[in-house]
Design brief:
mainly beta, Neuraminidase, 4-stranded antiparallel beta sheet, 12 strands, about 50% strand
């Protein structure tokens, strides 16, 4: 789970129900998004989440499809990248995410290929 920059919203991954949930500071669920599928914004067992507090974007690991999905903090799908494989921009079991607010880079631990991939805030590959 992650908090937004003003600690107003808490975002959680609900892997069993293939969705992301947003809660307010009182613990009340405000909304949720995602559903079982492979289309834009759909999820298949999301496993991790990171937040870009500068732009207000969420990055979610879609573990089954081996991709990263970027949403705004209200759940609007922005884009996705990746897919199964070991080449640049592909993942073989993506895991942890970390957003670096200084460089504005997203680090993705790709467990299956034993590497860390680096992307800019829009999901463009910087290095593997």
């Amino acid at each position: 789970m992650v908090l937004d920059s003003d600690n107003r919203w808490l975002f959680t991954v609900d892997a069993v129900n293939h969705r992301i949930q947003r809660f307010n500071s009182k613990g009340q669920r405000i909304n949720s998004w995602g559903s079982l599928g492979s289309g834009d914004g759909d999820l298949r067992r999301p496993s991790n989440i990171a937040i870009n507090r500068v732009d207000g974007w969420l990055y979610v690991v879609d573990a089954v499809i081996s991709r990263i999905i970027r949403y705004d903090t209200r759940g609007q799908f922005l884009n996705s990248w990746g897919g199964g494989g070991t080449g640049s921009g592909l993942f073989d079991s993506p895991g942890q995410l970390l957003y670096d607010t200084v460089n504005r880079w997203l680090y993705v631990i790709d467990q299956g290929s034993n590497r860390i991939q680096t992307y800019n805030s829009r999901g463009e590959s910087l290095r593997t």
